[in-house]
Amino acid sequence: MSTASSPSFLSRGLNVLAAILNFLLIVSMALLVLAVLWGVVSRYVLGSPSSWTEPLATYLLMWVSLLGAAVVFRERGHLGVDYFMTIINPNARRIAKLAAELIVMSFAGYVMVYGGSSLVSRALATGETVAGLGMLLGPIYLAIPISGVFFMLFGIEHLVEWAREPKLAEAEPVHAIDPEI
């Protein structure tokens, strides 16, 4: 979502990636709903609970949550405390935006990509499987480093947009409260 009139090559590529990611999220959410629905039907209507619906729903929810959070990060849709951004000098606001992006990218890189990859490696090394699904736990944990990579890619896009923003000279702070009152 570039601020320039024509999106950069990076933004165009990430638009395609985000569209694919949104489609996968929709399909995953639909599968999650169907799994939960089948779990309810098999338990309460058929009287024989299905063993695979709960773990499948749990891990689909993990994937949907983490990848969905990355999409929302790209769209800048996460909650924030905007009050402070409205009362500080525009130059300080610009620096705060940069700091926030760098903090998110650092967290995504270290905790999600590095830490998540370590978790996947350890889970694969143990060969642990998910009860009810019969599949290895390692690939399920891939949601963590994969979503971390998306956070970093979308963070790079934000940094490119930040660099393209016009730099402000001396500017007056914008006051949310009228001092005359």
The shape is elongated
Look at the structure and give the mean pLDDT. Answer: 89
Total count of helical runs of at least 4 residues = 6
Low-confidence region ranges: none
What does this structure look like?
This protein has 181 residues and is an all-alpha fold. Helix content is 71%, strand content 0%. It is built from six helices and no strands. The chain has helices at residues 9-45, 53-74, 83-87, 90-126, 137-141, 143-164. Helix 2 runs parallel beside helix 6.
From the structure above, extract its key features.
mainly alpha, 6 helices
Write the layout of secondary structure elements.
Blueprint: H1 9-45, H2 53-74, H3 83-87, H4 90-126, H5 137-141, H6 143-164
Concise summary:
By secondary structure, the protein is mostly helical.
